[in-house]
Amino acid sequence: MKPRFRQSMNWLHTWVGFSFGWLLYFIFITGTTGYFDSEIDRWMKPEITVVDQVINQDKVIAAAELQLKKLAPESTQWYIGLPASRTPFVQIQWLQSADVEKNILRSWHKRYLDTQTGEANDARKTAGGETLYRMHYNLHYIPQLAGYILTSLATMLMLIGLVTGVIIHKKIFIEFFTFRAKKGIRSWLDIHNIFSVLPLPFHLMITYSGLLLLMGITMSSVIDFRYGEGQQNHRKFYNEAKLDIKEQQYIDLPTESFSLKTVLNDVAIRYKNHKINYIGLIEQGSKNEQYEIWFDKYEGIHLVSTVKYRINSNKVEIQTATEKAGSAAQIYDLFEHLHEGLFANIYVRWLYFLSGLLGAGMVATGIILWIKKRQINNPKNKQLNVISVIEHINIGIIIGLPIAIASYFWANRLLPIDITDRANWEVHCFFIAMLASIIFSLCLSTRKAWLNLLWFTAMIYLTLPLVNLVTTEHNILLSIQKSDWLMLGFDLSMLFFGICFAMAAIIVNKTKEQKKSTPILANLNTKKKLKAAVH
Amino acid sequence: MTFIKNYANSINITARIFIALIGGFILANLVAIIISYLPADNKVDGIVMGMMVSFIIYTITVLVVFSTKTAKKAGISVVSGCLIAYGIIAYLNYGS
């Protein structure tokens, strides 16, 4: 390729990063929002009543059961969710089995229980936090399989980019602490290094585990070869691969009195220190009657202790699953849990969020570097300059994505409640906003595009709590009063992001002015020096 | 021949991209299948292990393809790698 190994790797790093850069930026940002999916979901469903005092568990479960009986008498699977730190409300879910005659599809339904009145309320139709984070691997508009393959390809290139990035840096440790401000391309390179090197373990983990999560699709030929082709064989493989080590024991509980109440009594004695998160009631009243108890407890990064109660040959049996049977499957589990970060408490969750943003920053600064380097090499003299078009689109995407996310939240509050396809329209608003910001950026000079878009983003984030105040009964003061911490946290975070964007706008405004007074790229000598420095 | 000379660089890079993307994918899959035979008693675990390692193989292959002197050399090394891997698989399949 190039005469020296490191030079070839530099070339590879540049092009691998640039080719899928925009998609990677999208994946990083939308994926990062996934670390707060429950919190976003709660904000997007303002109708939920939060439980702000200690509840009488038996009473709540009885009320939930009553509602389930009323709403879904024929369903075989009921779930009752009790308040937990990330979901401080009572929710009931049931499975609607498919009915061909009545043209009903198999689907899950969800309602939220008001613990004061015992009523089950429905929240507004919203795409919620789940759709937002799912975008980072299904890309929403394209077919699912194509989305998986595209994101996997982008992730693969990201992994190659990371490895080559490590190879081409001689002084990786020193670059931790190096930042030369106001030196044009040199400063961009320094920022790129800081964003990449500091959270490098996170980047490597998230990239590799991302590949693993979709490996059943991208590397399915291995399963085809060893297990046989077709859906049935694949399912057989997955069933075996997902096998947990199970521990069973019989307990002293008369089978005649086997019911939710006796099960809960047993749980209260047997698992005194555990807090129940979910209760599953499966096939109640039939031979296969079964109860699942999910605890809100993580040991290390694994969700531990799901207990199943069922009747087995005239005795009540309890079953707990510990870990995966295979050693490779255990490693896979480790990576999956690390990627999803479900175990994380609020501090680690913010660290995840920050690392994700740094990843997005790494990709964004990488693309900016690519553009700046090419602008030095080919000065702007042609009429139609491809590099400058890319530069404008790039600005439109980098700032456009935060705008899109804010629009998604705005749409949730402003779209009419009873509009058909409401959830889909929220997502449409997301992409329309991004497209609009790209077009807007193409119409302006780069400086104006940066400034205007940054100010606009700051404005829409700062006004989000206001929108919340006007369109719902929630506001910052009331949230404090009701100790509705998720709602409060969301509003405050939006204010914080708004301030960050405003500060970015002020910084951009200042740096450009200084540049005018001392134009760094003006004389040819500095240009040559810079070229040498970059290579 | 002047066409090839004029566009030597582009052809070189295009060839490498194809070798890296497609050749690398095939090689990664083949090596994954070989690894899946390693744990003799647990086929499923072997497959999971193979698929997990395949991404590392892919990365290394791409690095090799873009670091060799000529595209031809890169092509030869990937193709011969695939052939060797295929041979091993054929042998393993025959043995079992």
List keywords for this structure.
heterodimer; A: 535 residues; alpha+beta; 3 domains; nine-stranded antiparallel sheet; two-stranded antiparallel sheet; 21 helices; 12% strand; globular; B: 96 residues; mainly alpha; 4 helices; 88% helix; elongated
Structure write-up:
The complex is a heterodimer of chains A (535) and B (96). In chain A, strand 3 (107-113) and strand 4 form a beta hairpin. With 535 residues, chain A is of the alpha+beta class. Chain A is globular and about 85 Å long. Chain A has 21 helices and eleven strands. In chain B, helix 2 (8-36) packs parallel to helix 4 (71-95) and helix 3 (43-67) runs antiparallel to helix 4 (71-95). Chain B has one domain. Chain B is elongated. By secondary structure, chain B is an all-alpha fold. Helices cover 88% and strands 0% of the residues of chain B.
Question: How do you describe this structure in short?
Answer:
By secondary structure, chain A is α+β, with helices and mostly antiparallel strands. Chain A has 21 helices and 11 strands. In chain A, helix 2 packs antiparallel against helix 14, helix 15 runs antiparallel to helix 16 and helix 17 runs antiparallel to helix 20.
Number of strands of chain A: 11
Strand order, sheet with most strands of chain A: 4-3-2-1-6-7-10-11-5
* Biggest interface between chains: A-B, 35 and 27 residues
Give the CA-based shape of chain B.
elongated
SSE map:
The complex is a heterodimer of chains A (535) and B (96).
Chain A: H1 5-19, H2 21-33, H3 37-44, H4 57-71, E1 77-81, E2 90-96, E3 107-113, E4 120-121, H5 128-138, H6 144-168, H7 185-197, H8 200-213, H9 215-218, H10 220-227, H11 231-241, E5 244-251, H12 260-270, E6 276-282, E7 290-295, E8 298-299, E9 302-303, E10 306-312, E11 315-324, H13 327-340, H14 346-377, H15 386-414, H16 422-443, H17 446-462, H18 464-471, H19 476-481, H20 485-517, H21 524-534
Antiparallel strand pairs in A: 1-2, 1-6, 2-3, 3-4, 5-11, 6-7, 7-10, 8-9, 10-11
Chain B: H1 2-6, H2 8-36, H3 43-67, H4 71-95
Helix pairs in contact in B: 2-3, 2-4, 3-4
